[in-house]
């Protein structure tokens, strides 16, 4: 699959895909006889994984570290698991932060509902 097809399929720009390859996130993208990238299933799986982890907020540095660990083989399984566990904790902390922000927003919305209801009552003539 050519880079433009991969870009469209995963919603990642071709520049980003080239950057990911340059910094080591996409390590084994095959090339055809003319030197043009020809993504295979494994490369597409790597793109999908990187995109998922970036969408989850994982840093480029952590992803590079993770991919380096994969290349080092099975002996790094525990280290990879720990890296992903740290990412899981970070996501849970972000979710908690977002839930607190949502609660605060809802409080403000409810507050405005109360103020507007009070204003409407004040404008209505006594019955």
UniProtKB/TrEMBL annotation:
Transmembrane segments: none annotated. It comes from the Bacteria. This is HTH merR-type domain-containing protein. Keywords: Coiled coil, DNA-binding. The lineage of its organism: Bacteria, Bacillati, Actinomycetota, Coriobacteriia, Eggerthellales. The keyword DNA-binding applies. It comes from Adlercreutzia caecimuris B7. One of its GO terms (molecular function) is DNA-binding transcription factor activity. Residues 1-69 form the HTH merR-type domain. InterPro entries: DNA-bd_dom_put_sf, MerR-type_HTH_dom, MerR_fam. Residues 88-115 form a coiled coil. The keyword Membrane does not apply. PROSITE patterns: HTH_MERR_2. SMART domains: HTH_MERR (SM00422).
